Amino acid sequence: MRLHEAQRRFGLLFGMAAFATGLLLTHLITPSGFISDAPRWQAVTWLYLNAHGVPIAASNFQQFAWGQSIDLMGRYQVPSSVTAIPILLSTIYVIVTIDAIGYTTRFKHILENGAYLLLGYVLASGAGVAVSGARPAVTLLIVLFLGTGGAIYIGSIVVQNLTGGLPFFGVVTLGTVLITGLVILIGGVTIVLAFLPIVVIGGIGVLSGSILSYIARNVN
To answer: Residue 157 domain-assigned?
Structure first.
């Protein structure tokens, strides 16, 4: 198996496993019914995302207004140890990822291998946000972006086949271009800000796991 293939494969695998394990541990240590407004699986997902610093949309709760967000860790009686789970698991799974990808003693390569965990972790987190409805507006933006991107890709293939590969020039107004660009910019920034806490927590795990792996391989 080539290095880049191994990095992507194990990064996706163990990144998703880290997030799934976090959900399981959160489920085990939190009392049932701690959030009465949602089924347990949904409440656990919200809580685990909130442990990363991701605010939960208040529209999920009847007593709060649309547009607000809620810090579940501060509002509900849940074990404070939940906040330690994301960093702890990301650190452990980074070490596992580094070992699975291949042996190296150089910190640069160890850190690079460990960073691939973020691929699976962020994807799993995105799925958690979408399925649980933690951030409906962000989910809608992601769906719109994916749908638009897919439509553009399919359209380009169709146009290429119809024109036999010849260049095709569409006519659009300057206003359309500006509005589209503004929507993409605002939507992109919104999505990035929504997932930034997850990337930061995962990044801390990558750094700590890489340091521990480096020490284990270089200190006799």
So the answer is: no
pTM: 0.80
Query: Does any domain span residue 159?
Result: no
183: tokens are 């929507």
Q: Can you tell me the distance from the alpha carbon of 173 to that of 178, in angstroms, rounded to the nearest whole number?
A: 9
* pLDDT tens-digit map of 176-194: 667 767 777 777 777 788 8
Range of the domain at 125: 3-135+173-218
Residues β-bridged to residue 208: none
- Considering its fold, how many domains does the chain have in total? 1
CB atoms within 10 A of CB 147: 10
Beta strands in 11-58 (DSSP E): 56-57
For residue 108, being part of any structural domain is answered with: yes
Question: In this structure, is the dihedral angle defined by the CA atoms of residues 26, 32, 36 and 38, taken in order, positive or negative?
Answer: positive
pLDDT tens digits, one per residue of 76-133: 778 888 999 999 999 999 999 999 998 788 999 999 999 999 999 999 999 999 888 8
Q: What separation, in Å, do the N-terminal and C-terminal C-alpha atoms of the chain show?
A: 30
Q: Is residue 100 part of a domain?
A: yes
Instruction: Compute the residue count for the chain.
Output: 220
Q: Name the β-bridge partners of 105.
A: none
Rounded Cα distance between 72 and 70, Å, is: 6
